[in-house]
Every structure is written in C-alpha cells, then in structure tokens.
Amino acid sequence: MRREKMKSNVKILALAVAIGAGVVAQTAVADTAPKTEAGAEEVVKASSLKIPAVGGTLLTDVRKARMALFDGQLDTASGILGQATSYLGDETAKYAIKTGDGYGIPVDSGVSFADDFTPTEDHAGAIAQAGEHVEQGDIDGAIMAMTDAGIDLEVKMVVVPYKATLDALEQAIQDIDAGQIHKANMLLKSIETSVTVDGFKPGHLPHQGYSLSEILGG
C-alpha cells in the first residue's frame, strides 16, 4: 500500500485510463450493498472498492459548514454538521477499512497507471476494451481487461479517518453552541487536511466492513 497526504486542491479521483492523448474516465459509483463479510481476510482479491453513498457528501458538508461559519450562519452550520455526524453510523461502518492508525472510510476511488508504468501502442486494444466496459458501468471488467494485457495499474482510494472525523464533528457542534467559532472552524479544517490518498494493487485491496463498536474502540 502507498499512502500520501491529499492536497487541498486535489479533485475527487475518477477511474481514468489513458494512452497518448486519449482518456477514458468514469467517476467512482457509490454503492449501498458491500459484498464483504465480517470474517473475510484483511486483504481481498477484488479489483475495485465499494464507496458508501454518503462518501462524497461528507467532505462537501464539512466545506459547507465552514462557509456557513464564515458567513455567521451558526444554526445552518450546526445543522449541516449534525447531518454529517449521522453519516458515520453502523451502515457506513460496513465500508470501513483498517489504516495504519485505526480505521478509515473511503469517500472516493479510482484507477490509474502505476507510477513506473508507461503504456505503449501494444496496449491500445486493451485500453479501448476497458473503455467499453467503463461505458457499461463495469469497472471490474475494465480493470481485468487491462491487467490481463499486462498493464500495471494502481487503485487509488481517498480515505477519511473514521473516529477522528466523528469526534471532530461532534466537538465542532459543541464549540459552535459555546460560541467558540474559531475553534470549531479549526476542527473542520483538520478533517479536510487529514484526508489521504492510498494506493493499492488490484487484487490486493483491504477488507471492508467492521462493527462501529470496533471502530470506535467500544
């Protein structure tokens, strides 16, 4: 696994495969029924990750709440954060992964060429075939078409710390109620800066799905 801090201006990842000037892209699709079991191994032989339906909304709501604070709309900010807090419950825990320092929730994912791989004209057919799979919404099929052709890929995953994010959201609401707006804003900013982009090889992805009590240490 390769991990890097996500820069503030990094756009949400999409499935993208390219050769020359051609690009095929497909935004990661939110899923509501992860096909994992609690007893599964920590590394699973899957090609793509499952993203909770609230994945992208979580960070969007954090940004909206910060904007509301800047505008002095404290009730609006508290309401948004209350909604964001509700996202991190039992259902979302089914998508959680283990990280180096606890658990995280993937909020988006995509696929790119491995950093040390350069496609050639020999790969054009496989990439075109992958594009057809993407158009049909078959992400796993697209990945398989490329890996079978010897194309070295890396699955990118945008991850938010689970417990730290939940704690920060709950504390920010309390700080707003107490009139400590700057402190609340800094907590929300810490959520944005804690986001990482992790890299995995297809077929060697982390297991998804843990109980909320396990994630929160209860």
What is the tally of beta strands?
11
Low-pLDDT residue spans: 5-46
The CATH first-level class of the domain at 48-105 and 160-195 and 208-217 comes to: Mainly Alpha
Major beta sheet, strand line-up? 1-10-9-8-7
What does this structure look like?
The protein has 218 residues and is α+β, with helices and mostly antiparallel strands. The protein has a domain at 48-105 and 160-195 and 208-217: Up-down Bundle (Four Helix Bundle (Hemerythrin (Met), subunit A)), CATH 1.20.120. It is built from eight helices and eleven strands. It has helices at residues 55-70, 74-87, 90-93, 124-135, 139-148, 162-177, 181-193, 212-216; strands at 2-5, 14-19, 22-27, 30-31, 43-44, 51-52, 97-99, 102-113, 153-161, 196-200, 205-206. The protein has a five-stranded antiparallel β-sheet. Strands 2-3 form a two-stranded antiparallel ribbon. Strands 4-6 form a two-stranded parallel sheet. Strand 7 (97-99) and strand 8 form a beta hairpin. Helix 1 (55-70) runs antiparallel to helix 7 (181-193), helix 4 (124-135) packs antiparallel against helix 5 (139-148) and helix 6 runs antiparallel to helix 7. The protein starts with a strand and ends with a helix. Residues 5-46 have low confidence and may be disordered.
Distinctive features:
single chain, 218 residues, alpha+beta, Four Helix Bundle (Hemerythrin (Met), subunit A), 5-stranded antiparallel β-sheet, two-stranded antiparallel ribbon, 8 helices, 11 strands, 24% strand
